[in-house]
Amino acid sequence: MTTEQAMSSPPVSVERLDDGAIWRVVIGGSKGNVIDRPVTDALTDVFRDARRASHLKVICLEGAGAHFSFGASVQEHLPGHVAGMLSRFHGLLITLVESSVVVVGALRGQCLGGGLELVTLCHRLFASREATLGQPEMLLGVFPPAASLLLTERIGRRHAEDLCLTGRTVGADEALAMGLVDEVVEGDPTEAALGWARRHLLPKSASSLRHAVRAVRGDIARRLAVELPDIERLYLDQLMATDDAVEGLKAFLEKRSPVWRDA
């Protein structure tokens, strides 16, 4: 094993707690826990496995280290890669919903872009006081396809448009006020999330919880199946055909300000 291999982290780790009733799923693998292809594939496998784990009641999702995630890989947004990236990431979101497992999120530090799109599907979100959340895609000349659908479900159209159109980030207290997170905690958000799950969900039947999740999330599953492909085509066929979308992404990677042509 090389030194680099020894120091690297797996893209996703799973710790089974409470006799397998809770899975603690931690995103890692890179600085900022970027959601790239290895992370997306590993998370998809986790939620496929979760669907078959009959005694599983709750998944607690978090990021390794100081941050939840800086978002999806910008390199994978470039032409030649973006279609595959969106297909894989949106497939992950659909697999999460189809698992019918309760998912709680523990947010520390930054939760941005694809990271926020992912946790928007959590049933309950716990954020540390210093957490910041946002959809900064517009700063790069693009928009967040999944968030365009899912944020309206979670926080309503007014707040969803605010985040998607401005690209600004919000602190934990503002996120709580708009309903983006459910609790802001002074201590460890993972402990808060696990404590809530143990108090409210572990005494329940895993089978009954699955049926309840399917009932309350049926409309989201349908919207993802019907509406998300249309949004994805808008992104790929129209947005990515513009000069500004490619310019914004390249400017970010080159660490310079974009020069917009408004075309």
Structure write-up:
- Strand 2 (about 20-25), helix 2 (about 35-50) and strand 3 (about 60-65) form a beta-alpha-beta unit.
- Helix 2 (about 35-50) packs parallel to helix 3 (about 80-100), helix 3 (about 80-100) packs antiparallel against helix 9 and helix 5 (about 145-165) packs across helix 10 (about 230-240).
- The protein starts with a helix and ends in a 10-residue tail after the last helix.
- It is globular and about 60 Å long.
- It has helices at about 5, 35-50, 80-100, 115-120, 145-165, 170-175, 190-200, 205-215, 220-225, 230-240, 245-255; strands at about 10-15, 20-25, 60-65, 100-105, 110, 125-130, 130-135, 170, 185.
- The relative contact order is 0.13.
- It has eleven helices and nine strands.
- The strands form two sheets. The protein has a six-stranded mixed beta sheet, sandwiched between helices. A three-stranded mixed beta sheet has the order 5-7-8.
- It has a single domain, classed as 2-enoyl-CoA Hydratase, Chain A, domain 1, CATH 3.90.226.
- The protein has about 260 residues and is of the alpha/beta class.
- Mean pLDDT is about 95; it is low at about 1-5.
